[in-house]
Write the structure tokens for this entry.
Amino acid sequence: MTINMPAHNGKNGHGTAQDVPLPPTGDSGMFDPISVESMANQFYTAVPNALSVAAPTGTQPAIDNIGTVPQPERNSSGMSGVALVGNSAPASALSEEALTAMAKQLRSQMVPANLEANLFQAFAQIKPAAPSQETAAALPTTSASSNALNVEALKEAAQQLYAQIPQISPSGIPGNSIATPPKPTSILPLSEPDLQRAFADAGAQASHSPVRETPQPSFYFLSPPAVENLGLESGAVFDVSAIRKDFPILHQKINGKPLIWLDNAATTQKPQSVIDALSLFYQRDNSNIHRGAHTLAARATDAYEGAREKVQRFIGAGSASEIIFARGTTEAINLVAQTWGRKYIQPGDEIVLSTLEHHANIVPWQMLAQETGAILKVIPVSDSGEIMLEEYAGLLGPRTRIVGITQVSNALGTIVPVREMTQIAHRHGAVVLVDGAQAVSHMPVNVQEIGCDFYTFSGHKLFAPTGIGVLYGKRQILEDMPPWQGGGSMIRHVTFERTIYSDPPAKFEAGTPNIADAVGLGAAIDYITRLGMSNIERYEHKLTEYAIERLAQIPGLRLIGTAPHKVSVVSFILDDIPVEQVGQRLAREGIAVRAGHHCAQPTMQRYNLTGTVRPSLAFYNTCHEIDTLVEVLRTIRFR
């Protein structure tokens, strides 16, 4: 468990965060559960009901018109949260969710962004004083707490820091005539021995705190439960019920039935941490990036470029400069076709695609072929939906310039052997682009192991916002490619006679980029990285096997695409019932699936179909949801 503390540099007041490790809970710990509960009780009791807090100085402006603080649900049973006591405590226990919501709002409205760092720095500067006999007797005999805290120095530092907390004026209260409380003599409702133990431990750890990027200060006891708490080591239980709590959209009813989201190949739902990252960016850091000298510009730049570095690590790129942000997979492929393609594709050259491609990896190349006189060649697939590698190798020749292949079929779920296909293409001198839109959410990806020259994916398929995507390109290829769009940010120097372009990736990111959604993509990568892609892959594999087994038992249901290596995408048709009718019937029961050609009409034509019903699963889906799907499908045949 860690406390995220922002580290400040001396230039612009921004920087990365330091993780101060906390000792394990228990008698020797810094904050055991009883201490946290006691702190919460005292904190709640100390704050007046109207939340009118006066600073000891009048130099800070007031923050008016704040929202009302979430109130606890008065539920006499199921007290899983922290029970509050004292004169100002509510009559019933405060639920964990309500306490978390209160804490978030209090923190954002009461604590300036730099207060946490200043608090840590002030404590680090306090020199220990010789302990009194009474105090020494009360402390445990450990080397970390052998000296008593200099209480007078702490009080002085506390008063200086308290002056940074602006006055909070209540809003929405009739009359707005709440009395201002007296000045406190101490910020923290802790005893002297508690403080001595806490800061002795914090001081002992501060010298070797690791650095990690974070967009905001985060007090560990005010943060939502971390995904790490699920204990997802190899062989451990994948706690789907706990994970589902992170996705607020899943907890609703459609047509009076619980929502069952089985349309993840179209788009995935977003965890609360991603939603919060977007909200926090606009609340705290919103600014244009790269050229501003002010603090918000620096923080926004750090967040944006930090997201680029997270993408680099997530897909195993060699450098962050090989990561270009785009609106999604479609725009990324068009970028390659209109820059690299226009420069290198000549009349008679060959572009090789597979039958399994999404329209986004067909139409841009078709347009380029029509423009340049190039030739499209198509790799066939077997009845089970697998690439026919011998036929693929036979299509390649001296005129092959680029191979565009999906890593996972969005219509069938087939996993394509992109590493082997890339090696074969390179032997013929061809460049390889891999469409990874359907792969990155289901399996670990390493572009250097694949060996491809380009790799693309969309954020919204990866539990991130829409409107953000990624193009990876090998550095030497990106440097050789001409820019796609002209404008601000992608230039080094401009005159009316000549423009000198920036180096990649800036050369391909003209204008103001989608900063907030890039930050959201970074937050999504953080979330699934904490879960562990190997854990996700293992759980989804079992879920897919269960779904295929149950669906195969339905009379009249025919599975389309039965390759042994699949991700959690299942396609089927049901008797002669139009797929749209099946989708509509499922929707009335709160089950969301995709029914149609899935922007993969050549794939459908391979099986003489116009479309299929496609339930697609994610790690927050369950066997119970699959059972419900099967039950409804059984009823459709007899209507």
